Amino acid sequence: MTNPSPPRKAPEPPWRTEGTPDERPKPPSGGRRMRGGWWNLVLAALVVYLVANLVLSFFNEGDEPTISYTEFSKQVDEGNVSKIYAKGDAIQGQLKKARDDPEGDGTYTKFTTERPTFADDRLWADLTEHDVTVTAEPVVQHRSFLANLLISLAPMLILVVLWVVVARRMRGAMGGAGGMLGRKAPPRPVELEAGESRTTFADVAGIDEVEGELNDVVDFLKNPGAYRRMGARMPRGVLLTGPPGTGKTLLARAVAGEAGVPFFSASASEFIEMIVGVGASRVRELFAEARKVAPSIIFIDEIDTIGRSRGGGSGMGGHDEREQTLNQILTEMDGFSGAEGVIVIAATNRADILDPALTRPGRFDRVVSVSPPDRSGRKAILEIHTREIPLAPDVDLAQVARTTPGMTGAELANLANEAALLAVKRKQDRVTQANLSEALEKVQLGAERPLVMPEEERRRTAYHESGHALLGMLQPGADPVRKITIVPRGRALGVTLSTPDADKYAYTEEYLRGRIIGALGGMAAEQVVYDVITTGSESDLEQVTRIARGMVGRWGMSPQVGRLSALPGDAQQAYGLAAAPGTLDAIDDEMRRVVDECYAEAVRKLRDHRGQLDALAEALLANETLDEADAYRIAGITRLTKDDPQA
User: Fold this and answer.
1) Angstrom distance (rounded) from CA 600 to CA 597
2) Which residues make Cβ contacts (< 8 Å) with residue 124, sequence separation at least 6?
3) C-alpha separations of 58 from 55, 67, 231, 419, 576 in Å
4) 410-443 burial, b for 16+ CB within 10 Å, e for fewer?
5) Half-sphere exposure in the Cβ direction for 595 (13 Å, CA)
6) Contact between 275 and 174 (Cβ < 8 Å)
7) Collapsing DSSP states into helix, strand and coil, what is residue 391?
8) Which residues are CB-contacts of 328 (< 8 A; sequence separation ≥ 6)?
9) Which of 114, 214, 314, 406 is 20 to 30 A distant from 538 in Cα terms?
10) Calpha distance 643→639 (Å, rounded)
């Protein structure tokens, strides 16, 4: 039976735990090997002490000169000796004034000498005659045994301390690679703070369909026996995909809290180190700790960091650190070792680039898409995030939910927090509807900038924003105009905010053309009124280019290109690599045709409704900001809702 290995004090592992048991094995005590190490240390200390003591004693010999007894008698007769100390025939003394060393270089004040045994002089009488003090303590003080011991051990102690510091740093930087580099310590349970409870599905809202998918996992963790009797096996993994901020991490915590099982969480990037093999070692230890408290859940965030498709040329070969870490995860999830009772939940924003071996059944059995919430989901999320915020009676969360299409749970939480910050800043007791509206403008439009513009540029900005707004009001099926402002916000000199009444999941060609016409409204208004083109349309043209490229190259809305997807989704980076040169030329021609037709339509409509354009611009110059009702009233256009029969 082998001796237990000595305890290692290593840095914390790159994962967090929640809900693990409090019982942890105690570290083993030191063994015989450590005892042998202590004997070696004592022996080395003794050798260093003896050598250092010899060296120090050698230097002590030369601290004061040894003079002849004749010289000593001469100094006594001259009355230059202040005190002496005698032990046997050995004499130590100190002069009143320094004298030249007759047998060496320099001067001396303290000295030693030896009285001859055959001397028959009047030494005591001479000393008394010249008032020489005969002391009972040595004149020349030598270091004590303890001082010599400390001085001799000091170099070794400094070396030992330096060695310990370097060893700890090396262990912290390279721990986990195995062997002499050390190993990461097992995770410690993280207890919740007083009064804090674990996350459950009650803390999650707006994604009910996803909760239904994950409820099966929760039920399996609570009642594994019922599933085993039917021959069903526990799913090995669940992959959560979706845009950032949709609540993937929150869902994973809620599954663990609902099932009441331990929860281990880590980011995929935390497994990667410079030394090859560290990531794989950390994965093995994480799964080993999860099996000890099974059933349990492991959550790996941003798994695309290490789960990218292999063989794409991103690594330096078949043995780079990222691929070894991925291979270890594949083995732990469905390999020879098995992972009984451990469910892996992973989250990513790029499921399309994951390795096929990672997403096959048996590894991640379920792929759950977490999308931004709909209107009712947004209202439920706002209710959750405003539970601790005192709201005024005029707050209508349903209205806020209607005006925030496409916003994720994280963005809605930020909206509620911004409204609370505004209320505190204005010394209010409650958050009002005005606070929420202003916070929404800050989030969607950007913060106001104290920028003073020349009057001519301010007027041009007013016509630019009026062109956007008027075309949005005139275009059938366009998103309603919510607010117009010429107050500089963020990077823009003015902003026109348009949002749909209801969530849209599919877009028609007519709607997309209306979006392009509305985006070109600012440039068209400057063309109609001033016959110039300014740089203020940069962001508008970027939006137009993106929509036109999607219509022609991805969504089959061009007869010339045909019903095919010629460009990938990330066409901004891969443009020109996914289709033949002739197809790319056709896409370019069709994009120009669509944009030119929309721009001509925008100019025509603004010329036909020049009076309404001037009215909106003058109102903006007078008020700087127009809300939805005022904008439609000044333009003389009836706001149609989806409930109207003409809509």
Assistant:
1) 5
2) none
3) 5, 19, 87, 80, 84
4) bbbbbbbebbbebbeeeeeeebbbbbbbbbbbbb
5) 21
6) yes
7) strand
8) 279, 280, 283, 284
9) 406
10) 11
Amino acid found at 104: G
In degrees and rounded to multiples of 5, residue 87 shows phi and psi of -135, 105
Mean pLDDT of the chain: 77
**Residue ranges in 426-536 assigned as alpha helix (H):** 433-445, 455-474, 509-519, 521-529
Helix ranges (DSSP H) in 475-520 = 509-519
Question: What is the signed CA dihedral for 250, 251, 256, 259, rounded to 10 degrees?
Answer: 140
Q: Which whole number is the average pLDDT over 370-384?
A: 87
The position carrying tokens 């997403």 is: 359
- One-letter amino acid at 93 equals G
Which of 553, 544, 551 shows the shortest CA–CA distance to 584?
Answer: 553
pLDDT tens digits, one per residue of 12-32: 565 566 666 654 444 444 444
* DSSP β-ladder status, 342-348 and 237-241: parallel
Cβ contacts of 609 within 8 Å, gap of 6 or more: 470, 474
Rounded to whole angstroms, how far apart are CA atoms 586 and 549? 11
135 is written with which tokens? Answer: 């002391």
Nearest to 204 by CA among 220, 195, 219, 215: 215
Tabulate helix, strand, coil % of the chain (nearest 5).
Answer: 50, 10, 40
For residue 303 the two structure tokens come to: 């798994």
Closest CA to 474 of 306, 607, 352, 644: 607
Strands (E), 312-409: 342-348, 366-369
C-alpha angle with apex 566: 563 to 571, nearest 5 degrees? 135
- Rounded Cα–Cα distance for residues 467 and 526 (Å): 8
DSSP 577: S
- Which residue is listed with tokens 């303890």? 146
Beta bridge partners of 84: 93, 134
Q: Quick one: residue 198, left, alpha or beta (phi over 0 = left, psi -120 to 50 = alpha)?
A: beta
Establish whether 465 is a catalytic residue: yes
Residue found by looking up tokens 């950007």 in the block: 446
- What the block records as the tokens of 645 is 């029969």
The pair of three-digit structure tokens given for residue 220, joined into one six-digit string: 């399996």
- Dump the DSSP string for 584-613: HHHHHHHHHHHHHHHHHHHHHHHHHTHHHH
pLDDT band at 596 (very low <50, low <70, confident <90, very high): very high
Calculate the dihedral angle through the C-alpha atoms of 377, 378, 381, 387, rounding to the nearest 10 degrees.
-130
Partners of 448 in the β-ladder:
489
Q: H helices within 223-263, ranges in order?
A: 224-229, 248-259
Express each pLDDT in 391-428 by its tens digit. 988 888 888 888 888 888 888 989 999 999 999 998 99
What's phi and psi for 134, nearest 5 deg?
A: -100, 105
Residue 77 pLDDT > 90: no
Q: What is the 3-state secondary structure (H, E, C) of 65-119?
A: CECCHHHHHHHHHCCCEEEEEEECCEEEEEEEEEEECCCCCCEEEEEEEECCCCC
Q: Is the bond leading into 295 cis (omega within 30 degrees of zero)? A: yes
**Residue keyed to tokens 């963020």:** 490
**Contact assessment for residue 406 and residue 414, using Cβ atoms and an 8 Å cutoff:** no
Q: Which tokens go with 210? A: 């996803």
Whole-number Å distance between alpha carbons of 405 and 501: 8
β partners of residue 484: 496, 626
Residue type, 92: Q
- Exactly one of 18, 302, 465, 590 is catalytic; which is it? 465
Residue 273 amino acid letter: E
Tokens of 520: 């070109």
